[in-house]
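ok so i was messing around last nite and threw this chain in just to see what happens. nothing serious, just curious
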Amino acid sequence: MPDFVWTIGSFIFFTALVGVVSWYLTRNDNLNTNTGYFLAGRSLSGIVICGSLILTNLSAEQLIGLNGNGFMDGMSCMSWEVTSGFTLVLMALIFLPRYLKGGFTTIPEYLERRYDKQTRNIVTGLFLLSLVLVTLPIVLYAGGIAMNSLFNVSELLGISNEDSLELVIILSGVIGGLYAIFGGLKAVAVSDTINGIGLLIGGLLIPVLGLMALGDGSILDGMHNLIVNYPEKMNSIGSEKSSTPIATIFTGILLVNTFYWCTNQQIVQRAFAAKNLVEGQKGVLFAGFIKLLVPFILVIPGIIAYALFKDEIGKQDMAYAILVNHVLPLPLVGFFGAVLLGAVLSTFDSALNSASTMFCLNLYKPVFAPNISDKKLVTVGKVFGIILVVFSIVIAPYIAKAPEGLYVFMRSIMGFFNIPILAVVLVGFFSHRIPPIGAKIAIVFFMVCYALYKFVFNIPVHYLHVYGFLFVCCVLIMYISGKIAPMEKAYYDYEAKVVDLTPWKWARAGSAFIIISTIFIYLLFSPMGIVGYGEEYGGRLAMIAVIYLALSAAVCGYLYHVDNKKIHESNAQ
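result:
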């Protein structure tokens, strides 16, 4: 009984603490305006942006799904996480300056300015479909599995697993809805930052305890055990039979991650809310660095679970929950449960806020009520959010358990929405006369072809390779349309002057460090690094580390010196 009381008490305490602190820090915010409710008054600092980006990204479907892929495929599935650093560099140096220069609130708003209102409406519809049919229900479903397993809700309440899953889904949806619907983006971002600290602590605790269990009390011995005895799992290159063969990085994964970190409203809305370009770039690049470390939370535990319990785990998506139940001390279960709930809520309420933002600003106001006041529009957003919460709660328990695992299932379905949107945004960035009809044809072409691949023809090609091929086709379609019927008046970027656009002096140096670190991680966990050398990997580890540190210091130092000099010269003028 005391252990149970401690577990529930610590869970309630940390969950309530996040809510109280978030309320206190946002209690005086004006939520009756578009900017105040949807963009936090353009007041977010780099630390808050980083925390919100990371926790919006990290959630139960990743803790469960990606660790499940780690259990099956090993380190090769880290490509989803590690390559995010490169795409966050693109966001910081290319996308974010243009977004802030234009003063945009949403991605569809940019597409309306670049193409036309119909393109805006089509892309808004795609965004809303992806959030409503995929993101929101899957987040609740995965969170329900994790929380139900962690707390043994079915045994605790004496109900079936299905009923306990539905109960946890309902509670998660209601709590997440309260943050997003009644607190606006600022409350979401602040709660994300607080939960992010807890998630990093709790998330790192699991692999640390797992390595200690594997190494008889020693973390280093546990890692040594994995490197020496499970080289096939520690190989970042992987095989063609894995869920993410190395070639898919260049055909599909980089495209998916570029969409996710550079054009996905759920993510970029945090950067749109930056108080200036410096804080926006800080937040984005801090997040890029943290993403390099995330595989220790999202992949290594799955490999540890394989080493410890491979004979006990029948389905890969149960690997993380079984590891947690075995290695986490009972007094910490409540804290970890609160952290896990925070991760679920973060992704859920972020998606909910983004959906409400796009519905109100890109559909309801321009199409149905162009003269609506800000206060009434915010009310519409709250009502729409409530409807989405109810819908998500209803369909979440019926999410099918795909045989390839939850994470791969989600990524493959999201392809219907993310790749065509990325193509339209990217081509719009780098061309000025491609007409709206080209964007519309490209979107329809992609969705029809991908549907045929997914549901009609049994083509033995990895879905990420299909992404790459169809993306190239979409770009060609748009450029051909530009040759046949170019826009009479070329599009140009104008400056809205809503925030200061002076770049951060460490932006290029920090970006270089992230790119070099990405290459280092892949090299380290490969046959060219320490994998497959048995007990003799120590010398190679030292050599690669020295080269990495020296190269990073030289390149980053040079770029910082050059950029800092340019900023001083610009200020002097």
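not much to say yet. Confidence is low (pLDDT under 50) at residues 33-38.
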